[in-house]
Amino acid sequence: MFNKLKKKLSKSLKSGKLKVFSMFFILSFLFLALTKLSKNYTETITFEIVYKNVPEQHHVDIDSTKKVNVSVNAYGFSLLKYSFYKPKLEIDFETDVVLKNKTYLWNAQQNAPKLSANFKNSVDVISIQPDTLRFPYQTLAVKKVPVKSNVSIEFAAGYDMSTTLKLVPDSIKIIGSEKWVSKIDYVTTKKTEFKNINSNIEKSLDIELNEALNHVKMSKKSVVAKGHVEKFTEGTFNVPVTIINLPSDTNINYFPKTIPVAYNVSLNNYKQVRASEFRVECNYRDINNTEKTFLIPKLVKVPEIVKSARLKQHKVEFILIQ
C-alpha cells in the first residue's frame, strides 16, 4: 500500500510544470493519502539482523540472509516510515541466545520485549516469524602466542635506545582448528629496517603470514613497535680486580690490580654512573691445577642504567708467593 502511494507521489513531483489541474490533482492525492494514513493496517515489517559478541572460541554458522518478520497493527502514520528504511535487530550472543546441543538458539517469544522496543506504543506486535533462529557451531581452539620482532635498527652517530624495543601488544590470540593452532608457537612481524634513527621509534608493523596463519583468525594483524631513543656517550672507569675461590693456603700476586671498563650510557644518566657499581672478578678455579700464569677477568656487575660495557684488558698476570 505504502509503496504505491510513494510511487504516485514521486511521479507527480517529477512532472514538468505544475498547472492548475496538476495542483488540484496533487491536493486531491494528498487528501486521499491523509485519509488512507488515518486508518488502521496490519503490515509485516522485515528486520535485518546485526550480530554482537559472537564467541571467539566457536565457529558460529552465521547466515547473513536470515531475517525476522514482525507482523504489526497500527495507524498508517505510524507505519509510513518503515516503507523507506529497513529496521535492524541486534542479536547479542551474551544475552539474547541460549546454548543447546551445540546450537545457539534465539527465541522470538523471549526476545519480544526487545523487538517491541523498536516501535512506539501506538504499534501493536501481532506475531514474530520465525519463532526460533538456530545458529549451529563448531568448537575452535584458542591460543595466546608471543609476537617477535624482525627489525634491524641503524642509529645515527651517538644515538641508541635506552631500553629494548617493545611491541604493543606483545602477544596475540589465534583462533582456528586444533590442527593449525597447534603448529603455531609464536608469530613474527614483517622484516623492517630503520636507518639513521635519532628520535623515538613508534611504528605499526604487520604480522608476517605463513601457511598456518592463513588458516586461522588473529586477534590482531599488526602491532606497534616502540623505542625510546637518546643521545649516548662513552665513559671509562678503572675497576678493582677481585680474585674469588682462592684457596686459603695459596698466596698470589697479580697485575694489574685494576682494569679499565668502557661503558655506554645516555647523556642524561652519565653523571649518575659510579665506579663502585661495576665489579670485575677472576675465578682462581678456572686455572687451578694447570700451568697457566694468567687469569681471565670477567665483568660480572654493571649498573642498570648502563646500555653496554666492556673490559679493555683481558688478562691478569699472577705469580705464586711461597
TrEMBL record:
Report the source organism.
Answer: Gelidibacter maritimus
The record ties this protein, via InterPro entries, to: c-di-AMP_regulator
Superkingdom, natural source: Bacteria
> Could you identify this protein by its name?
YbbR-like domain-containing protein
